[in-house]
Amino acid sequence: MKKTHIVLIILIAVAVGALIGTYTSSSESVGFTEAFANPGTEYKVSGQLDRSQPVIYDPQTNVELTTFHLVDKNNTIREVKLRKAKPTGLEQSESIDLYGRVENGEFIATEMLMKCPSKYNENNHSLETAEAIDR
Amino acid sequence: MEEITYNGEWIWAAQLGRFLVTAGFAAALIGLFGYIKGSLGKGDENWKRFGRAGFIIHGISFLLVIGLIYFLIFNYRYEFQYVWKHLNNQMGTPLKISCFWGGQEGGFLLWMFWHIILSFLFIRFKSTWEAPVMAVMSGIQAFLACMLLGVYFGDYQFGLDPFILLREVPSNIGLPWTRNPDYLGLDQFTNGQGLNPLLQNYWMVIHPPTLFLGFASTALPFAFAIAGLWKKQYIEWMRPATPWAFFGVMILGTGILMGGAWAYEALSFGGFWAWDPVENSSLVPWLLLVGGAHLLMVNRNKVTSVFSTLFLIMSSFIFVVYSTFLTKSGILGDTSVHSFVDSGILPQLLVYLLAFTMLATIMMVGSLRERWTYALVSVVMLVTGIFWNPVLMVVLFVLLMGIVMIRSYRRYIPKPKVEEELWSREFWMFIGSLILLVSSIQITLQTSIPAFNKILEPFSGTFTSIFQATDIQLFRKLADASFAPTTDIDTAYHLWQVPLAFLLMMLIAGTQWLKYKKTDFRKFLSKIARSFVAAAAILLIVLLAFDFRGDDFPLIALIFATIFAITSNLDYWLAALKGKWDNAGASIAHIGFGLLLFGAVISTGQKDVISKNQIGDLGQLNDQLSNNEDILLLQGDTLQMGDYFISYRDRYEEDIHVKFQIDYFDKVPKAYSEGDVIFFNNMFFEAKEDHIASRTFVEDMEEKWRFIPIPNERHANEAKRWISGTAGDFRFTLEPRIQLNEQMGNAPEPDTKHFLHKDLYTHIKWGRITPPEVDEEGYLDGRSHDVWVRDSVLVSNILVSVDSLSAVTMQEKAEFRLLPKDLGIKVHMTLRDRGREESIQPLYIVRDSIIVPDMVTKEDWGLRFLVNRFDPAEKKINLTIWEHESIRKDFIVMQAVVFPQINVLWIGCIVMIIGTTLAVRHRIKLARKARKQ
C-alpha cells in the first residue's frame, strides 16, 4: 500500500470522526416540555419573549442574572434565568434562542441569541407613515 | 387604470441602468460563447477576439452600472430603493462610498467589479491560456449578472434589481403615496434610511472591498484548473496560476484579518475571533486556497498530487460561493450575531452553487461522451428538483458528484509513476494541505448545522423507522432534524482545530528544511536541531511568564509548535537563504503566520476577565450564579479592578453615542502596621507586623495576620474591611459607549487601552439609556430584602440595620390605632449614612390572620419601607424598600478583559502579508522568466 493511501485513510477517518463528533456533541432544539423532562441536558429552546410578564434585571443584586418568561414554539410559557447581563434590545426582540439546561426545576440559560426586527420591516413601517401623512 | 406621470423622478437612470445590466449579461454570454469557440481544438484567433470583445463590453457595462449607482448616490436620488435604503443626508464622503456595498446588490456588484478588474489584468498579460480561462470567467460573470436582473417570472423574482424605484417595491405597491405624482416632495423622501449605524465606521470603507477582492481572486485559479482539465494539460496550468493563487492567499487573508480587527476594535464580540458563521465562511476558502497554492508549487515540475491540487483549488472558489449561499440566503437563521435577511434568492444561489460544483466535477472526467452523460443526468436531477422534492434531488446530486469524482480520480487524473520519498518536501507539503482540508471540513460541518437540518427534513420518516428498530438515540436526533450548535462554541472548534494547528505548525517548522525529491534524514535533523532547542528555551520563558493550568497541555503544545515554526523559518531565512529577500517570501510569511497564531493562543488562552463584581449582596446569590465576569459601577464610587482602581465619572451624549467616562487610577498597595484590626469574610484579624498588602488576602493571611476568634468591642469598633490597595495617581480614561441605533437596537461598542504587551478591552454590558420608571411620587420599583435581626442591607449608600423586634403593647396599640386583638410587631431599624442617623419603627400587623400593610415613608432619606413577612423562628423579616429617584445613583455594568500579547497577533498579520507579497512577486518573476525561455 502506498503512503498516500495510508494518509487518505487517516484523512477519511478523521473527517468521519469530525462529522460524528460535531453532530453528537451538538445540542438539540426542543420545547420546554422536553427540556424539563430531561434536567441536566443541554438544549436549545427557541421562542418569543412573553411581554405580559416583566423582564427582571436588577444589577445591584446580581449583574449577571436576567429573569424573564419565554413562550416556546409549542406555546408553553416558562420562566427562564439567563446568566448574563440583560442584553440590549431584549424587549424589542422578535425571536429568541436560548441555550441552557434545567437545574432544580428552573431553566438556566447560559447563552442567548436574539433576532431583532430587520431593517426591511422598518422600511415598511416608515413608508406606511408616509401614507398617513399623504392623507 | 390611468398612467400616472411622476414629477422629478430620474426614470432615465432606471432605464439606463436596467439596459446596462441586461447588455452586460448578454455580453458575458457572448464572451462565454466566443471564448469557448476560441478554445476548441488548436484555438481560433478570431473567435478568441470575438469572445474578448464580448467580455470587454460586459466589463465596461458593469463598470458603468457601478458608476451610475454612485452617480445616484452622490445626487441623493431617494426615489431609488437602493439609495434610499443605504444613504442618508448625514453621511460623509467615505460613508457614501461604502454605502454602495451596504446591500446584497452592491455586494454582488463589488464582487463582479473585482472579477472584471482581475480579468482585464489577465487579458493584458496575453497568456496562452486566455481563451479557456476567460471562458470560465465569462460564465461566472454571466451567473453573477443574473443575480441583478430582477426579472419576474410570475411571482418568482429572478435576481435583485438595483435600480428598482421605491414605489415599485412589491411591499409598497398599493400604498396611497404611490398614486401621488409629487410623492418625492413628501418629507419621507427627502432623506434616506442610511447605512446601519453599526456599519458607519472606517472599517466599512476598507474591509468589504478587500474581502471581496479576496473572494474574487479565488476565481482565476479556479478558471485555470477548469482550463487545465478541459485542455487535458493537467499540470501545465499550474505555473501561470501560482501567482494568482498566492495573490488570493494574501488578499483574502488580509480581508479576514481586517474583519477580525473590526470586530475587536468596534464591536462587542469580546475578542477578535468568535467562530461566527460569517467569519468562518471566509476562513474556509482561505484555508483551502492556502492548501491548493502550496500544492501548485509541488506539482510544477512533475506529476505528484494533481487530484488534490485540483480539488483544493476548485473547492476554494466553490466554498466562496457556498459561503455566499450560507450567509445571503437566510438559511442560517438565528445562529449568528450577524443578522441575515432572506431576500428570496436562495434557489438562485443554490443553482449557482450546484452549477459550479457540477462544472468542477464533470470536467475531471476525461472522456467526452461520459462527461456529457453525467452533465445531462445532473441537469435532469436539478430540473426535477425544481418541481419535485428539491432536497432529495440535491442529496442525489451530491452523491452523483462524489461518485464521478472518485471514478475520475481512478481513471483520468494522472498519478505519479514513482511514489514520492518519505523525506521529501513534496510529501510533507501534501500532508500539510490535507490537514488544511480536514480543518476546513470540520469548520464547515460545524457552521452548516442549520443547513444540515434542512437536508434531513425529508428523510425524517426513514430515520424514525431506523430509530424504532435500533433504539439508537442518534437516529432519533436525525429524524427530528433539530440539531443546534452547542453553547460552547469555542470548545466545539478548538477540540479539533488546536491539534490540527499543532500538526500544521510542526510541518511549517520542518518542511522548509526538506529538499524536493529526497533528503538525508540525519542531515535534516542536524539542521533543524538548533531551532528546536531555541524554541524549547523560549517556551520555558513563556511558561514561566504566564500561568497555565494542567489541562492546558494541548495549548502548550501548540504554543511550542508556533515558536518552533518561527525559529525554524527565521533560521532558514538567515542561514540557508543568507538573509536575502528574493526567495524569502515563504519563510517570512510562515514567520508571520507563526506569530499570528502565537499571539492568538496567548491572548485568548491567557485572557483575564478582571471585572469581577465587588458590590452587591453576594450572600443572596446562589453559588452557581456567581458574579465572575461583570462589574457594577456606581457613579462616583472608586473600586478596585485588576491592577487598577476605577471610577465611573460621568456620561455624555455625542451624536448617536452615549459615552461613559471611566477613569483609571494606579493601585497603591495598602500599608498595614502592627496591631491594625481588619475583617475579612466576617472574621477579625490583627496585624502581626508592619507590612505591605499583597494582591489577595490569602497570600498574607498565614504570615502577617493573627485570627481573633472572639473579638472585643475595641476590635469591632476599629476594624475595617481588608483592602489590598488604594487609588493612586490618575492614569487614563476609557470611554466605552452605547450606540443609539434605531434600526438595529442599541449596541455597545468597546473602548480599548493599548499597551505594548497587552490590551485592556472594556465594554458596557448594561447601562441605562432611558430614565428609570417611577411612580407619581418619584419612587422606583421596590426591592425585597430578607434581613435577620442585627443584620443590615445597603441601599444607595444608606445602611439600613434591623436592630431588634418587639411586640406592640396594648398601650401602643391604641396609639397606633390598632384593634386590641391585632398582632403587632415593631421592627426597630436604624438608617445611617455619612453623619446622619435616624431610628424608625415600621410595624408588622396581622389582623384576623390577614397582614395589614403599614408603609413608612422617610422623605428626607428618600426611602419607603414595608415589612412583608416575619419569621419568628429564624428572627428574620422580609422587607420591601423603595428608593426615591433623587437618591438612586446612576450605575453601569461593565466587562473588562486583559488580552496579553495581542500585539504579537497584529505584528504577525503584517509580517504574513509582507511575506506573501514577496512570494507573489517572486512567483511573477519566475513565471515571466519561464515565458521568455
Number of helices of chain A: 3
End-to-end CA span of chain B: 72 Å
Q: pLDDT under 50 segments of chain B (min length 5)?
A: 615-625
Give the spatial strand order of the biggest sheet of chain A.
2-4-5-7-6
- Provide the number of structural domains of chain A: 1
Shape of chain B: globular
In the CATH hierarchy, what is the superfamily of chain A? Nucleic acid-binding proteins
Please report the two chains with the greatest interface, counting residues with C-beta closer than 8 angstroms to the partner's C-beta.
A-B, 67 and 77 residues
Arithmetic mean pLDDT of chain A: 78
Give the strand content of chain A. Answer: 25-35%
Number of helices of chain B: 26
Rg estimate of chain A, integer Å = 22 Å
Q: Specify the overall morphology of chain A.
A: elongated
Structural class of chain B: alpha+beta
- How many β-strands of chain B, per DSSP? 30
Beta-sheet strand percentage of chain B?
A: 15-25%
Radius of gyration of chain B: 35 Å
Report on this structure.
With 135 residues, chain A is of the alpha+beta class. Chain A has one domain (28-127): Beta Barrel (OB fold (Dihydrolipoamide Acetyltransferase, E2P)). Chain A is 33% helix and 33% strand. Chain A has helices at 3-25, 32-37, 119-134; strands spanning 27-30, 43-49, 56-57, 66-72, 77-82, 95-103, 106-115. Mean pLDDT of chain A is 78; it is low at 118-135. With 933 residues, chain B is of the alpha+beta class. In chain B, 50% of the residues lie in helices and 18% in strands. Chain B is built from 26 helices and 30 strands. The longest helix of chain B has 31 residues, at 902-932. Chain B is globular. Mean pLDDT of chain B is 86; it is low at 615-625. At the A-B interface, helix 1, strand 1, strand 2, strand 6 and strand 7 of A face helix 15, helix 18, strand 3 and helix 19 of B.
